[in-house]
Amino acid sequence: MTTTSVTERQAPPPEVVAEGFNEERAQTYAAATRMAPDARRNEALQVGYALDRLVAAPLQRVVELGTGQGFGTARILERLAPDGVVHGVDASPFMLGHAKEDKRLKRHAGALDQLQLQADSADLAFSIAAFHHIPNKWITLEEVRRVLKPGAAFLIVDVAHDTPAQRTFDYIVRPYCTSGHDADFLDKAWASVLARRAGFTLEAVRVEDTDWHFASEPQMLEYVRDLFCLHLPLPEIRVLLDRWLAPYQAEGGRWVLPWSLGFYTLRKP
Ligand SMILES: C[S@@+](CC[C@H](N)C(=O)[O-])C[C@H]1O[C@@H](n2cnc3c(N)ncnc32)[C@H](O)[C@@H]1O
Prior knowledge:
Layout: H1 6-9, H2 14-17, H3 23-35, H4 41-54, E1 59-65, H5 73-78, E2 80-90, H6 93-96, E3 105-109, E4 122-128, H7 137-147, E5 148-158, H8 164-176, H9 188-197, E6 201-209, E7 212-214, H10 217-227, H11 234-244, E8 248-249, E9 255-257, E10 260-267
Parallel strand pairs: 1-2, 1-4, 2-3, 4-5
Antiparallel strand pairs: 5-10, 6-10, 7-9, 8-9
Helix pairs in contact: 3-10, 8-11, 10-11
Bound molecules: S-adenosylmethionine.
S-adenosylmethionine binds at residues 17-19, 21, 66-69, 71-72, 90-92, 95, 112, 128-130, 133-134.
């Protein structure tokens, strides 16, 4: 019989920490983005509006949780001072490896609950499409509060509980993505409990329509297959999308996949 020492068990490999964002998932995620670079344009627009409501002056120091290949980072960089810095933290070095080079982006492959930043040093914390992955949300929020300056905000943008987007994750991605997707999504009540426990004020909650757009139906199906790393034939993906998201063809022939995201603003007192 083999035995495992306590020390060995305490050190999970990074791909376990990143909850399945291994090399294959990072490759297919990047392929989806290359295939339809404007699919998430409405997300980018809504993130821009939310940041403009929060931020007046150019930002100096931002921490981003779950940076991945930098989809949201681009919106932060637009609002960053020329000598500012974004600390992009992600558990998956494979996902970070696809982020576009920018001298103001410092990539950190590591845990979100041990940020390599000084206390009271960041103007803003930001996260998009990643917070649901975090298993220890309260501890991570406490760590984010530690590094934010007093009065600074944490903008979490993520799939909201009890929306078609959440059901898509639970009923399509979770069973058919090889790396699994056992996630816990925020709603106002859950965000409020977590914020209070971690010493934040929950300042605002809104759910915005952020439909995804595609040039054709096959492009939409291939995008969904690759973004979520689904091991399913395209006709089966179509059936599942009809059930949970009801895509439709808009005027001009484009295909629309109804999507939405929750926007949660937490403020450090
Ligand atoms: C769906 S991707 C989103 C990436 C990017 N923010 C975007 O909007 O395209 C989720 C990201 O969260 C990261 N992630 C998942 N679990 C994590 C964890 N426990 N700690 C840190 N990052 C994690 C993944 O590696 C991945 O890059």
